[in-house]
Amino acid sequence: MYRQLLEQHIEVNALREPAVQELKEPEKPTPISEKEQIKPQMEKHTVVEKPGKITEKKSTSSEKENASPSDPIAQKIVDETSRLSDRQREILQKTFTTIEQDCVRNGLKIFVRLFSEYPRYKLIWPQFRAIPDSSLMNAVELRRHASVYLKGLGKIIESMRDEEELRKSMSRIALAHIKWNVQRNHVIHMIEPVLEVVKECNGYQLDEETRQAWTVLYQVIANLIEVFRCRALNE
């Protein structure tokens, strides 16, 4: 029923988007007195060997990446995002380019297909509950949500080349879904509707490599939602 309504009634116009630290003057070196200049070299070595005078070596970026985060949540985020290979990230960026050209319409297609398979999922979002099924497809609330949804997905895909930013984007998306009681299986069930839209927007071509890349992405999002849900329940 939802798919028929989409073909017969939905006419969507894309929503318009409303669109150095100051250098400190270097400190002047403290003049060295004549008495200090003539101190024996051995005395200098003695000062360096004192524990309080040894400067701690700073960790390099590579050392930080190899070190395990002390926060178990941070470690799980690292473990999940690391599942996406460089090739998969490249595929996601490439195939999303055509989808984001019409965020509203393509977002609607995803939710139409999701609700046609799982009608009760409409109740997850409070803004949809009072809207009759026959009117939901043309409701401004769903159009708005469809646009926000795909733009949020776009933020994740944009950050694919920046590991730290990707983890932050994933965490924000996961936390945002917890308040609506979106659970792991809800996200997993969106994979097929998303794949259908990916296929339509890319010349009706969907090879196994592309399917796997999008599947892993949604599995990672779903798993992170559960990670943050467990933390919230334990707090």
UniProtKB/TrEMBL annotation:
<keyword id="KW-0408">Iron</keyword>
<dbReference type="GO" id="GO:0005344">
    <property type="term" value="F:oxygen carrier activity"/>
</dbReference>
<feature type="domain" description="Globin">
    <location>
        <begin position="83"/>
        <end position="229"/>
    </location>
</feature>
<dbReference type="GO" id="GO:0016491">
    <property type="term" value="F:oxidoreductase activity"/>
</dbReference>
<dbReference type="Pfam" id="PF00042">
    <property type="entry name" value="Globin"/>
</dbReference>
<keyword id="KW-0479">Metal-binding</keyword>
<dbReference type="InterPro" id="IPR013314">
    <property type="entry name" value="Globin_lamprey/hagfish"/>
</dbReference>
<dbReference type="InterPro" id="IPR044399">
    <property type="entry name" value="Mb-like_M"/>
</dbReference>
<feature type="compositionally biased region" description="Basic and acidic residues">
    <location>
        <begin position="22"/>
        <end position="66"/>
    </location>
</feature>
<keyword id="KW-0349">Heme</keyword>
<comment type="subunit">
    <text>Monomer.</text>
</comment>
<keyword id="KW-0561">Oxygen transport</keyword>
<dbReference type="InterPro" id="IPR000971">
    <property type="entry name" value="Globin"/>
</dbReference>
<comment type="similarity">
    <text>Belongs to the globin family.</text>
</comment>
<keyword id="KW-0813">Transport</keyword>
<protein>
    <recommendedName>
        <fullName>Globin domain-containing protein</fullName>
    </recommendedName>
</protein>
<dbReference type="InterPro" id="IPR012292">
    <property type="entry name" value="Globin/Proto"/>
</dbReference>
<feature type="region of interest" description="Disordered">
    <location>
        <begin position="16"/>
        <end position="75"/>
    </location>
</feature>
<dbReference type="GO" id="GO:0019825">
    <property type="term" value="F:oxygen binding"/>
</dbReference>
<dbReference type="InterPro" id="IPR009050">
    <property type="entry name" value="Globin-like_sf"/>
</dbReference>
<dbReference type="GO" id="GO:0020037">
    <property type="term" value="F:heme binding"/>
</dbReference>
<dbReference type="GO" id="GO:0005506">
    <property type="term" value="F:iron ion binding"/>
</dbReference>
